[in-house]
Design a protein that fits this description.
CATH class of the largest domain: Mainly Alpha
Oligomer: single chain
Distance between the termini: 47 Å
Number of domains: 2
Largest sheet: 14 strands, antiparallel
Helix content: 25-40%
Amino acid sequence: MAAHDSEFYAPLSDYAMIGDCHGAAFVSRDGSVDWCCLGRFDVDPVFCRILDAAKGGYLSIQPTVPYEVTRTYLAGTNILRTVFITPKGKIAVTDFMPVGRKSGAGTHDYVTLTAPFWLVRVVESLEGTTKIRVTYRPTPDFVRCTGNLTASPGGVSIENGPYFYGDGEFTVGDEGAETIIELCAGERKFFIVSGEPIKDDRHYLPARAQHLFKITKKFWEEWSSYCQYSGPYLERIQRCALLLKLLTYAPTGSIVSAPTTSLPDMTSGKRNWDARRCWLQDATLTHYVLSTLGYGGEASRFSQFLARCCVENHPQVPVSCGIDGDATAKEEHLDHLEGYRGGLPDRTGDGVVAQPQLHVYGEVLDWACLAQSLGMQIDGGGLALLDSLADVVAMNWMEPDRKIRSMPGPPRQLVSSKIMSWVAMDRAIRMFGDHGGRGEIREAIRKAVLTWGVDPEHGYLRQTFEGPETDTEALRAPLMGFPLPRSTFERTVNMITGTLQSTDLLKDSGKEDLVRESEGPVLTSSLWLVDALLFLDREEEAKDLYKRLLSYSNDVGLFPQVIDPKTQEFLGNFPRAVTHLSLIHTAMNFTLYKTGGVEALYGIYADRARQTVPASTGLRALWTTFKKSVFVRRFWSSDASILILDPPGTPSNDTP
């Protein structure tokens, strides 16, 4: 552990996220913004105290005397409201990043989001008299860029850094710029961080910030109203949906895995990654969840982004793409920072994208099959591209592979990769027909899995062909439509719960030498177990487990990916898109089970989508309705272009 112990770092569960669908900020329970990227998720942050308690920057607003805290998001929004209660008064801090429509856009226009790329903090005295301390310490370029702060009436600036408007008189010291303000009941103060100097007259800024608050609140409320989920835990599911929208990069439609970098998956550090990228392994789940919730606009834009990634990187399918679709990601270590709680390494970029991982091809073909079933029209070039991806799998499915992240050693004969190779062949046959011996290859893969992937003594799915260990990836087999005997799947579930389950949570794998060091339990794996219990018709067990898993969120409804088994603290980059996608997906499986029993869960995502995607917003319905009057846009010029349909007059859920 480095010089700064854990007491200097807020637990990750103390953070709430705000954003504008371009960048994001983290606000702690004690009123400090400890992470903030303006304009883009993947730019260097203006505040990064979460990665170095001593050096990293922050913007803190809190009472000068002891206080109690309550906080929540305003209903149906991503606007955070924190209330500080002191012996003499009560104040509220409202945090948001402005977002809205382009000026003059109509209600149903297909427009991109617009935002000034500001962080806005509004302090209001609710009762009594309260003194607050405001401390502003920017650290651009991950603290590599230093400069002197300059305070002027109503603002603080730094060369080559962000601009700060503060409703007070600041003095500059060793810890940054600071002021103490006394607020009486009814008084309100505004504080704004901008990546560029604010051109408005500073006397007008409070009025503009208040106007942007109203626009932002209306934007989120209207977006939330499009959600068509009506099952159990409605509030929790809506919060998950709002988080997914926060993680969406509006200019391209991509969704980042998480808005942070280098938050360790283990208490000892070592497994730290930059999660500000879009992971293709989540493609089908993302499209399915967005479509089922009724957000056809988001599903369409995400698919446009994914299609472009495939075209630009063909014939290779990358593990992840940047938010602009670029698969390259130069990795850089930030050795001058100590890391969250001393958990080095800190890094930007992602060197793992170069690893060959065959299972991603199955994911992309599964996504294409789903998207096509919902009405996405793919031209001849796009079909040829997808067809060629199936050829890659047909030629290479017998080769060893790697798991995402957790296998730094040599490639292995992974059962999960074989199943996803089967998926690739199956979806190719569904989309293009059985040619080139694909039916025979699909059957050969199935036989290989059942011959070498099943433990000969106990009859459960193993992690690899070489050893007895299992892992939670096996729980996904029925969801992918893989023809696994029920008895084999039941023994697999029992083996996993017996060896990998810790209380309500599952570890990814039981073999520590594959991951160098065993990490904490993973929430998505536990949600796969809920799905598996439903497939086995064990409804009450599934319900009880799902209810308990919902309790692992923080106080504002956000979930991590990994949890420390001893302390129950959040680990890893946070909040994670795949966790919230999985929570929604499992809730939808409960709805399917309620209406049609286990049989309603059978098949593949394309089959289940026909039952769950609302007809009024599904892409399939839009294509049928507007078939003769669509506008076709080409996002790139290539023989492998995919045509995206924008029906005229269609409400854009991307920008309410």
